[in-house]
Amino acid sequence: MGRPALPVARRLAPLVILGLLALLPLATALGLPAHWLTLVTRAMIFAVAALSLDLILGVGGLVSFGHAAFIGIGAYGTGILITEGQTELLIALPAILLVCAAFAAVTGYVSLRTRGVAFIMITLAFGQMAFYFAQALSAYGGDDGLTLYEKSTLLGREIFGNRTGFYYIALSTLAFCYWLARRLVASRFGRVLRAARENAVRVTVTGYDVDHVRLGAYVISGMMAGLAGFLLANQTDFVSPAFMSWQRSGELIFMVVLGGVGSLHGAIVGALAFLIAEDVLSAWTQNWKAIFGPLIVLFVLFTQGGIAGLMTKLRGRRDG
């Protein structure tokens, strides 16, 4: 009797997660430190990026080690436009997404000609190219980064200045990206992408162009990560080449694996858990990385499915 409830639990999980996130500002009004609002806003921004990576990694089986480049492009695009006096969101955001799409289309077309380790290395190479290009932008801070003295506006109104308002913008963006990713996965496009991960030759024989489907997913994923970069720049009022370093790409992979590869909502949970644990441990000790790394490795090894997989197992035992 308990087994049929599992699919329902999976469908409800993202709604529960987003519902709890929506209540956090109320908790801060009741006494939770205001720092948590800023922290969770940042975590939700990275959850958008992790979700975008899970779309190609978990669903398509494409391990990109240069995905942070899209975050950097989104952040630098925002920073450069603001510096040049263009703060209007309705102009800046489409331009940023278009640049991310173009970069993803070009790099994806080249990268998808390879497989396995070669694909990982070539995405890493493209990510490092973007990183060094940002370092070379001396007019916009170069290696020191670029400080932003304004935020993006909507029809002339500043919408990112209020901390609670920004929180709900980030939450709404995350909810929309999750809905979009879920719709894509459930569509014929998503089914072909998932099938190609299992057996690309068989899918090709049925008449589908696997490379085009994978490239489409890569472009959508890059645009979604660029959107995260746009929000990140407006939250931090600062952009830096570090936003697109290979370490940041590795952290995104960790978030996806920690939450549960391929579950989509697991990417959200993984990003939240990663950044909250990072904040708590860094406040406790300066050597937090020496603790954090082994903890993540042990957790992933023993859960074999991340947080989403662990919750499914616990649910199955309780219903069983």
UniProtKB/TrEMBL annotation:
GO terms, molecular function: branched-chain amino acid transmembrane transporter activity
Entries under Pfam families matching the protein: BPD_transp_2 (PF02653)
An annotated GO cellular component: plasma membrane
Entry keyword rRNA-binding: no
InterPro entries: ABC_transp_permease, LivM-like
Chief place of localization: membrane
Subcellular location field: Cell membrane
Superkingdom assignment: Bacteria
Residues that span the membrane, as ranges: 64-83, 89-110, 117-140, 160-181, 252-276, 288-311
Topology in membrane: Multi-pass membrane protein
Key words, A-Z: Cell membrane, Membrane, Transmembrane, Transmembrane helix
The protein's name in its UniProt record: Branched-chain amino acid ABC transporter permease
Lineage of the species this protein comes from: Bacteria, Pseudomonadati, Pseudomonadota, Alphaproteobacteria, Hyphomicrobiales
